[in-house]
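HOLO CASE FILE
Compound: NAP
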Amino acid sequence: MSAIDACAPQSGQTVLVTGATGGVGSQVVQLAVQAGAHVIATAHADHEKEHVTELGAAEVVDYPGDIASAVLEAHPQGVDTVIHLAGDPAPLLAAVRSGGKFISTLIGSPEQLQAESATVVPIYANPTPATLDRLADNQASRHTIVKIQRVYSLDSAPAALADFGSGTLGKLVIATD
Ligand SMILES: NC(=O)c1ccc[n+]([C@@H]2O[C@H](COP(=O)([O-])OP(=O)(O)OC[C@H]3O[C@@H](n4cnc5c(N)ncnc54)[C@H](OP(=O)(O)O)[C@@H]3O)[C@@H](O)[C@H]2O)c1
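Model generated. Tokens follow.
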């Protein structure tokens, strides 16, 4: 929620989400799309591309290729906002338009990046009751969805942990009843 609040996406704005296939990214993509933004999402495998497209992304950029170059090819002025949730931040700065925003959950301070014309916003999650209520309300009302990849019984918890370690797209659930 903090990343999307910092973005404050508006209709017609372009937003690049790197790490769009992750837990945070999947929420950010949906909320930016619902605000009317033109969302460009990173994904690699075909099922990941399908996933971000289902969430509403208008464009998909492959990684680990040169994300900034691919984005600038289609948007020569750069995007309004980059929401950086994965990968090396420095090369992505080139994808932000002059005066745009670079929001990151992976940097500690703006000084970590040499940004000439973009505003760099580090994000520190603060799971207050109000924030958690907003997230829960979004799920309950189906405003956003969380993809459940697989449900395991409690006895199968070791298998769930092993699967988690080998990569997931969405959440793994261990049911206790
Ligand atoms: N600062 C804070 O308060 C805060 C709060 C929450 C999260 N975070 C951080 O924010 C990041 C996102 O969290 P999350 O829970 O969404 O993590 P996550 O579920 O692990 O998602 C990261 C996603 O990015 C993909 N990815 C990996 N390398 C990439 C690259 N170079 N370019 C584009 N995508 C790439 C991953 O794919 P693969 O699985 O295929 O590698 C994965 O789908 C994490 O680094 C987390 O530590 C920070």
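CASE NOTES: Strands lie at 14-18, 38-43, 59-62, 79-84, 96-104, 119-122, 148-153, 171-175. The two ends are 31 Å apart (CA to CA).
CLOSED: yes
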